[in-house]
Fold:
Amino acid sequence: MIALVDCNNFYASCERVFNPALRNRPVVVLSNNDGCVIARSAETKALGIKMGAPYFMIKEQVKQHNIAVFSSNYTLYGDMSNRVMKTLAEFTPNLEVYSIDESFLDLGHFYNKNLHQYAQEIKDTILSWTGIPVGIGVAKTKTLAKIANRLAKKSSKAMGILVLQEPRHIEVALKRTAVEDIWGIGRQHAKLLKSHNIATAYDLARQSDAWVRKNLTVVGLRMVKELRGEPCLDLEKISPAKQNICTSRSFGRPVKALSDLQEATALYASKCAYKLRKQGSCASVVSVFITTNSFADTKQYYNSKTIHIPTPTNSDLHLIQYANLALSSIYEEGYIYKKCGVIVSDLAPETALQLDLFDGPETGKHKDLMHTLDNLNKRYGQAIVKSAAQGSNKASWLLRKEHISPCYTTRLSDVITARL
DNA sequence: TCTGGGGTCCTAGGACCC
DNA sequence: TCTGGGGTCCTAGGACCC
Structure:
């Protein structure tokens, strides 16, 4: 049996843990740049505020209902996530951390009747050790565990825990799950299924393999088999290295000048380099994209450029250099830019590098330099040492974060950086 | 004034090989 | 009258996830 443990309203719950005055107050957490709603407490949901709603369009309700508003604070949420996952790991070593607020746990060796009780123990422990409320769904496959988890949260009787084991219980659960609420069915497939009069998970599970394969590809077929109780998706205990890494942001204000874009590109390139070093990879391809604001009624422009790097690298300095080369080939004057980003791909382990015959001696030195830089930044706070190309911490194009909470759980230097 | 930021996998079609 | 049969690799685009 597999359990899916999912934190309730995760970001909103994190803000609440350290601020008891928020207990019964509606809370929202905003996306980067304070753009739109990405987490809501139960009270906020009850007020009818939708996921993804632009902040500027709900300001009236915020005032009216005294909603507590927070900019996203990923340092805090990341740390709280680690605490939750570490607590879960006490219950079984066989777990897959699926996202910042979800884990699959292998409960294979537990006896049937104790499953509900065991799930209750997990739920209580997470709450008392971390302050985060969770919901737990237990079933034979990941897809069914997802369904159980969703119903556990919806039903007041379930109190956040649902074990799907008896065939008749599974049948009821499938009949109560609309196709668009199945894990793996998005907007397009939901539309297609409905046009064929397939409305619930129960209906879908009864379609023929051939029909599912043809209309939903092999991915859909695996999912349908899981609905029928046949496990097709393994627990991924070790997360595989990423194949692409992207760092992109919207700007805090409209940007016209090449020099601002250069600073932003350098900053994102260095973030990509850091992420590469963290997973022990080097990249041999770097892409840069820039775009205007598609919501604005102004001249639109989007372009991207991909550059192949002669020797795979994870050095800030190399990536900044190539990223800016790419940027200068696509920059056009006269547009108002909203966002840019850097993507590195064609990743390989840094231990298996193919060196370029014509590399100078400085290539090896980059490794030591970056190692030192990472150590300094770890010790004294983010980006205490960096390439001058990245500009200042006070650049006017940086993200807006007007409602940021303190980083309650992490170092002082992070608090300073977050405020900057 | 104001609308996020990351990822993965699959398929179809074209270019190329023998 | 008639124009083979098999592969691989790459890319763009579309679907999905949190």
Chain A has 14 helices and twelve strands. The longest helix of chain A spans residues 258-279.
